[in-house]
Amino acid sequence: MASSIKVSLDRLVHPVASIALRGVPQPSDKDYKEVIDRWTQTLETHGLLNIFTVRPESDGTFTVIDGNTRLFVIKEAIKRGNQKIIDRFGDGLNVMVEEKSDIDLLAGAIVGNATHRDTKPVSYAQALKKMLVISTDPEMCVEKLSSMTGLSVETINKYLGLLDLPEGVKSLVDTRAIPIQNGLGLLKLSLEDQTDPETIVKAQTLTTQEFGAEVEKIIAQERADKKAKAKGTVAQFVPVPKMLSGKEIGDLWEKAKYAYESDSSEYNRIRLEVLNEIFQADEKSIAAQRAAWEARNANADAKKKAREAKREKLKAVEAIIMLITSGTLPPKQMVSDLLATLGEEFDNEPLVQKLKEYLAK
Asked: Which of 168, 164, 200 is nearest to 184 (CA)?
């Protein structure tokens, strides 16, 4: 049965990594200062809006189930001598003590952080996977996990799918650079397409609907290529060159560098230059990579700004539509001036059509 007690800060501890949903903020995190400042201000102004739930441990400490970020911020603020925090929490915290197993503790953290803005999608998926792995229940499955956490089976499977993405893409999903749905869309593609720089940029900049259409286009093109390749093929022997593995080519590269250092003959120079080009380590390739990278980023930024500008204009249109709907009719000249600022790209927007109908009356 749960009971409420007051516990000193030094006896409140964070869960071990194996049952933690996410770690406490780290100075290396990009949003570290923003998270610390936001939580410090909230704690100074409102205190703890929700009492911590903790689990008693055999060594006399208490593991915090939900509230680890707040506990970390409180302890850090006290270290810095924040008097408001010291006055509120210096003598300890009131907590709710509950006996919980590791899997129950992890389930509590999952439920408590389901909609938390600081929860990283892939870390959340890893916590769900942990529950399936560490459970001693032989019948544990996604359906049972759903009943324990309150998440739908579809939502759980969606998160678990993120774990199949390449590591670099996972990082982009965790930082919200790639929306979750676009990350899941990448899973429909081959590993080569999942890591293709152009596809990654599209996953970052396109809406879910736009990127879904782009994925279908890539899949359709791959199918068409396979059919074209298979059509009219006559069985015959064709020698197939064997591509060396990355490690084998790397070994050749190292040997070529050593050979050139030992003997700077024309043969060794050309051999090294060819391998430099294969690894795109020559100056021309590096310059081309940088130029392509900068162009992709510039194009992505331009598209993002264009979408934001369009959304702002549509907000203005929507505001006038709301006036008309409420019976407050705006001057037609004002409506006409607004429509004049919109380009052809807005012609098919339903809201714009409504404004044109209003002018026509």
From this structure: 164
Kindly give, in sequence order, each residue whose CB lies less than 8 Å from that of residue 5, ignoring residues fewer than 6 positions away. 94, 95, 97
Between CA 76 and CA 71 the distance in angstroms is: 9
Enumerate the β-bridge partners of residue 97. Answer: 3, 54
pLDDT in tens, 306-359: 888 888 888 888 888 888 888 887 788 888 888 888 877 787 888 888 888 888
Question: CB burial class (10 A; 0-12, 13-18, 19+) of residue 355?
Answer: buried
Joined tokens for residue 21: 């949903």
Residue 180: closest CA among 203, 148, 151, 199:
203
Amino acid identity, position 29: D
Q: Decide if 71 contacts 12 (C-beta within 8 A).
A: yes
Letter for the amino acid at 216? E
Which three-class secondary structure state does DSSP give residue 16? coil
Q: Quote the pTM value.
A: 0.42
| Cα angle 47, 49, 50; round to 5 | 125
